[in-house]
Amino acid sequence: MGATAQDPIHLLRHVRAIRSFRPDPLPDDVIADILEVARWTGSARNRQPWTFILIRNPATLRRIGELGAPQTTHVGRAPAAIAVVMSSGGTEVDAYDEGRVVERILTAAAAHGLGSAIGWIRDDDRPAAHELLGIPEPHRLRTVVSIGYPSAEGSRPKSAPGTARRPLDQLVRDERFS
Amino acid sequence: MGATAQDPIHLLRHVRAIRSFRPDPLPDDVIADILEVARWTGSARNRQPWTFILIRNPATLRRIGELGAPQTTHVGRAPAAIAVVMSSGGTEVDAYDEGRVVERILTAAAAHGLGSAIGWIRDDDRPAAHELLGIPEPHRLRTVVSIGYPSAEGSRPKSAPGTARRPLDQLVRDERFS
């Protein structure tokens, strides 16, 4: 494994959801970079079925934090968020591509020393979220990614309950499932 | 943007599907590292709804390449593949989590200088794939990620038609969608 692989691999191994942030704003070039990484995400038949809304207005962030609580509470505490609006949504392929682009955003944020987490908009809360952000049919919002510099509290998520992972010998099979 | 962010960001900006490989086998520690990155992927309620089958048997790889052609043809040319078996599948949340873990595998492979691509198992081909890999109900295989060192041909995917991306000014909105 070459030296060039070390830093990215270390990063990838340590990307964790962070939900507590310092109030510091994000530099514009950092935001642009995260969006650039998201832009290059692959998708089924290269449809790129997404639009990103960059949100920094504190009132809007707070409102999202409230309307989807508790799943979106951390968005209300963040200095910025990216809403991932899917062009249609409702199919498994859409959800698969959405997961891909969201994972890229989380990883790009971590590469810049930022914390981030998925804020999940439930079906019941979607009409209010769409109205708040001016999202028309047939577009569909399910994910709002909070982004910010981790607070001292937010940078210690690894020890939190529920963040454990199954060991590799349970997860991996050789050549066949069974 | 600090120096530590440079390499990972460069990597993230340049992860592209690569479908043509040299026959060289992958070192065991590299495979273990990619699986370790996959293991730490986040999922809804931390369910970790996946099992990974590591496939290096040439006959098995070739058979997957055939049964899902043309979407899986590149798997038949790869020295290794990871089949991402979902614990149940069929819901949007499963597909979202599957997209997340697949994106991590693609990125971890790129961090090691490897190429990789998604081999997509269509619904019609799933029974044959399940039989080949011994996957029982209710598990579900949709993604087989091919992995290998890029061939000279495979390392030039950027110029291929269909890999263009929409520009940021079409993709990004400020504060509201419209």
Features:
7 helices; 178 residues; alpha+beta; homodimer; 5 strands
Brief rundown of the structure:
Chain A is 39% helix and 17% strand.
Describe the structure.
- Two copies of one chain form a homodimer.
- Chain A is of the alpha+beta class.
- Helix content of chain A is 39%, strand content 17%.
- Chain A has seven helices and five strands, in the order ααβααβαβαβαβ.
- The first copy, chain A, has helices at 3-13, 28-39, 58-67, 73-76, 92-111, 126-133, 168-171; strands at 50-55, 80-86, 115-120, 140-148, 172-174.
- In chain A, strands 1-2-4-3 form a four-stranded antiparallel beta sheet, sandwiched between helices.
- In chain A, helix 3 (58-67) runs antiparallel to helix 6 (126-133).
- Chain A starts with a helix and ends with a strand.
- Chains A and B meet through helix 1, helix 2, strand 1, helix 5 and strand 5 of A and helix 1, helix 2, strand 1, helix 5 and strand 5 of B.
